[in-house]
From TrEMBL:
This is Methionine permease. Its main location: membrane. GO terms for molecular function: L-amino acid transmembrane transporter activity. Keywords: Membrane, Transmembrane, Transmembrane helix. The lineage of its organism: Eukaryota, Fungi, Dikarya, Ascomycota, Pezizomycotina. Residues 7-20 have a biased composition (Polar residues). It comes from Fusarium gaditjirri. It is found in: Membrane. It is a multi-pass membrane protein. The chain crosses the membrane at residues 62-83, 95-115, 136-162, 174-194, 206-225, 250-269, 289-311, 340-362, 394-416, 422-440, 452-472. Residues 1-45 are annotated as: Disordered. One of its GO terms (cellular component) is membrane.
Amino acid sequence: MADSNAPLLQSRSSYGSTDKTSTRHDSIDSEAAGEIRPSRDVEDDVLPETSTIGRNLSWQSAYILVISRVVGSGIFATPGTIVQSVGSAGLSLSLWIVGAFIAACGLAVSLEFGCMLPRSGGDKVYLEFAYRRPRLLASTLFAMYAVLLGFTASNCIIFSKYALFALGVEATDVLSKSLAVGLLTFVCITHSVFPKAGVKIQDVLGWIKIGIIVFMILSGFYVVIFRPDTTSAPLTHQLAWEHLWEETSWNWGVIATSLFKVFYSFAGLDNAANVMNEVKQPVRTLRSVALTALVTACGLYMLVNIAYFLVVPIEEIRGSGELIAALFFERLFGEKFGRVVLPTAVALSSVGNVMVVAFAMARMKQEIARQGFLPYSSLLSSSRPFNSPMGGFIIHYIPSFLVMILPPSDSIYSLILDIDGYAAQLIGLAVAIGLVKLRFQRPDLKRPFRAWMPAVSIRIAMSCALIVAPFFRPPDYEGDVFYALVLVSLDEGGAEVERDEVAGGDVCFGGWDDDHEAKVFLERSEETVDVHCMQMKMKKMLSIIQVRDMLETYRDEELYCNLFGNHKLRMPSTSTSSPTFTAFQILGSAIACQAFIGAS
């Protein structure tokens, strides 16, 4: 039996091995005087390893790996969507502060685990060490999460939108998705075939990104201090107290959805933990890099949000979506510079984020393949022929590719934010509870970093609050879809159109025409809007309907339909003639709800 008082910092060199005995989770073999001691196999399971690639990541490379993961699409795209949801600059800035505080609490949990168990895999290793019963349950659940939801899609989408914006090309659905998929393909091939060159490229792009953000911040404050002759005067009144909270939405469901997006922007502070086998002096590097990146990210996020409010009117911010940074540059530097040069730089910074996320996720998924959870594990877990986790990149590529090409482009960004944000809260909650569990069961373990217990408690409480948040209805049924989702399959060959005397206009819930497009007739209008469905080749269309009350679906007269757009429709009550329902299902799972969330 392993000496429980011995530090867990031993070294082995089995990276790339597919020997499943090295990753067994055997039962606890003794319980003496109430003390629970793991077997040698369990203890060995979390001992650090040295990668066959070697420990080649310096402090600088590890820092870029973290800060490029954290500061990605969030700083360029999320502020606009948050203001759209909460309505005011005051609440938006407050959420960024709260998000930074909660991120620090979550980082404390990850640092205690990472310094105690310095081995590649991150949360996978922590969950396996904390939850050994039932056998392999933690490994299986995390493998499902990492493989199915661990994709690199959001920043590929941001890259395509900003690149097309800079080139002055209309961002059609096909073109946007093709460009995003092209970036993903380039990144995976580069890291797989030219691993050392890939690290150097992501280091350079990381410093370029930091330089761009610092330039944005200085530009915003330059307008206020020197008041140059620009197309936009400084909008300092937007940050005045009397205007700071105007049009604020205090609904907890809306606030929680926005917090998900803030947390997504801070996600990745523990990114170095996923590649600990390749980091020089792993414990010291992890601790210093993560804390430095946290301070850097907090400062950059707050200052760049203030810069946005100083330059761009809040009405434009509410309607800008992911292009808020492009509007910032255009108003500050004019159309030529603002619409071409700097959006190109923003697109390049998104490339850096995609590279560091893929770099870390591929190694995590290679660890999953080593345990035999995936088909062809011996092939996918190998580091041949380029001394890189090519199999991990293949596993990473497939779900990322699918999540980019299947949903409609208009809703895909918010879809990704909400899916990843919800699942990450579940994982974070399990890790935090596991830390508390080990404090009582294994107080003898060497902990180079100890998390403050109130911080752990705050992390647990916030995770619980955010997990139940989708069960709160947003005001006026606007924003993201909440707990009640209805899948309605409509008759083939077109939808039934009914006269709604209450609404005073024709209402159509959509259907298939010869071009396989869903047509929506707006309330009190003869205007027809074409809305593309997610599954274009299906004979019948599945539309998502946000219902007012899950228990009174058929009795409500004002159901709002979201056909992957923002068009509100009025449905006739069931006492009159109504569209034909050929299938009806309420998805009670909160994760399923998040999978269909649209832009708020």
